[in-house]
Amino acid sequence: MKDAEDMYRRALTGLEKALGPEHPSTLNTVNNLGSLYWNQGKMKDAEDMCRRALTGYEKALGPEHMETLDKRYNLGLLYKKRSMFENAVQQFEFAVQGFTKTLGPEHPKTVEASNALERVKSIRREGRGVKVGSSAARFCISIGQAIRSTIVDVQQGSLHE
Q: For residue range 72-130, what is the model confidence (pLDDT) as tens digits?
C-alpha cells in the first residue's frame, strides 16, 4: 500500500503542476488518495483529501454537479465511520437534496443517500456510537466502575445492609 500511496503522491504533484490544483483530473487523484488513506485506516488523512476533493469539485463543477454530490456523500460516509454524526448528517442532507433535484426521489443514488441519512439519524437518536472522552462516555464508565466496585464488595462480604 505504501507503493500505491507514493504513486498517487507523485501523480498528484505532476497533475497539480501540469493542470492545476482544481482540474477534475487532479481532483480525481486527490479523491483516490483519500480512498487509499481510508483503506489504510488513516481516517484524518482520508478526511483531509475528501474535503479537498469536495471543495475543488464545488469550485470547478458547481455544488449540484453529480461528481460534487458523490464526493459530499462519500465525506458523509467518512464522518459516519469516524462517529462524527452531526457532520455526517449535514453532508448526507445536502447530498439527498442535490440527488433529489438532479435525479429525482426514486433514483438509486437518492435512495441510497436517504437511507444513509436515516441510519445516521437513528444512530444519533439511539445514542450508539458515543465517542470516547465525551461526557456520555465518561458517565457510562463511572457507572461501570461503581457496579464493579459493588460486585467486589458483595463477593468479599463487605457490603452491609
A: 999 999 999 999 999 999 999 999 999 999 999 999 999 999 999 999 999 988 876 55
The residue among 156 and 32 whose pLDDT is bigger is 32
DSSP the chain: -HHHHHHHHHHHHHHHHHH-TTSHHHHHHHHHHHHHHHHHT-HHHHHHHHHHHHHHHHHHH-TTSHHHHHHHHHHHHHHHHTT-HHHHHHHHHHHHHHHHHHH-TTSHHHHHHHHHHHHHHHHHHHTTTPPTTSHHHHHHHHHHHHHHHHHHHHHHT----
Residues listed for the chain: 161
Q: Is pTM, for the whole model, over 0.90?
A: no
DSSP 131: P
**Which DSSP string corresponds to 83-105?**
T-HHHHHHHHHHHHHHHHHHH-T
Q: Is 22:56 a contact under the CB 8 Å cutoff? A: yes
Cell of 161: 445492609
Is the torsion defined by CA of 124, 133, 72, 39 positive or negative? negative
Give the span between the Cα atoms of 156 and 137, in whole angstroms: 29
